[in-house]
């Protein structure tokens, strides 16, 4: 993969830190996923500066999750159920706060897309290595 120009690499690194911040929030806040943000942060760091990607991959727990995702090992079945339930609950509880019907429909479709992605595209790991 060719490296982007240096001005874009700075933006990729900045995006990586923003995504890491969201990942940390996901570890703290119930119902807010964390792993997906760390996976996206690793992807952003890989485009911006491999040293930051290596730093993120060296973090305990987070690094293992990213490596498992990249290796195609998928998610444990229990984690998939929890992730889908969190998406459904988040959409259900926030739906009433969207005043426009079109916005509500779009929000439900986004939630549905998330659930479909997790159930159909993310491999299921039935046994923990």
Give a written overview of the molecule:
The structure is a single chain. This protein has 129 residues and is mainly alpha-helical. 73% of the residues lie in helices and 3% in strands. The protein folds into two domains: 65 residues, no CATH class; 51 residues. The protein has six helices and two strands. The chain has a two-stranded parallel ribbon. It is globular, with a radius of gyration of 16 Å.
Topology readout:
Elements: H1 6-28, H2 35-48, H3 50-57, H4 62-70, E1 75-76, H5 77-95, H6 101-121, E2 124-125
Transmembrane segments: 12-45, 77-95, 101-120
InterPro entries: DUF454
Protein name: DUF454 domain-containing protein
Features:
two-stranded parallel sheet; 2 domains; 6 helices; 73% helix; mainly alpha; globular
Biggest sheet descriptor: 2 strands, parallel
SS element count, helices: 6
- Oligomer kind: single chain
- Poorly predicted segments: none
Looking across the biggest beta sheet, what order are the strands in?
1-2
Kindly give the count of domains.
2
- What is the radius of gyration? 16 Å
Summarize the structure.
Helix content is 73%, strand content 3%. The chain has 129 residues and is mainly α.
